[in-house]
Request: fold
Amino acid sequence: MASAITEFAHLKIPFKDVEKATNNFNHDNIIGHGGFSTTYKGRLLQSEKLMKIAAQRFDCKHVEAELEFTREISVLTDLKHTNLISIVGFCDEEDEKIIVTMYEANGSVGQHLSNPNLTWTQRLRICLGVARALSYLHYSKGRDHAIIHCNINSDTILLDGNWEAKLSGFETSIKKSVRTKGQVCPCEPIGTIGYMDPAIETTGGVTHNSDIYSFGVVLFEMLCGRKAYVPNQAKSFLAPLAKYHYENKSLQDIMCPDLHCNRMSPKSLLKYTSIAYSCLNEDGANRQVRTILLMYLRKHWNFSCDLKVL
Reply:
């Protein structure tokens, strides 16, 4: 990983510049927390242009923080896609390790799940953007490696000013040779509670299908207007609840009321929920989201007519 830092030395940003951009890491500028990092918004002057940025500052007291820092730089500097977060640069000075990315004006999907103003059409467009990002990560022609994200959730999916999805949170991602992409990558359970693939316990590791499971949970979050896991609440985990209601044809009982009350094509809803349910299949090999979602939705999702036909 150290070689990745050296290779992209031209992206280095002095600590004093990041400090100034975030107003000395002012508490009011905090926009997110990770396991070993805190993210701040700010305005960075670069090439005589003032840009809005997000500065992810890692807590270097933890060994894991440095690993996450180098891993994320390695991934972000290697990948380019319209539905992935864009790296601006990084700071690596003594005990300061910071990754600077473009600031996304509308925060994360997790902040808008219950937002009555986030329409069905917008939610579908966001989901399609994430699906495209996953397809690119899992396989891209001409690249000799594939990426397992390992932490797909509604807080790592950011939204730009046009409500387009920008996938972030690559601190725990794993690179794999394309030749072995279908094989299990042995590791301890990683991810966020409520989104982790239950198959990890039996296989002893993750696969690209683990990302598909997590994405399926996000699809149901978007439909139900609630987080995947709500502590200290009855039926706190959304995934088993959604599967139960899907199988019993009673999803309307847990759908976001604002979506349920507004005009929504029954055919659109049926296709969407069948895709989301397939993502949660206990057998990872049967999680067909990349095949089903991208091929079907590109053909049938007509945003110009409010997705009357899905």
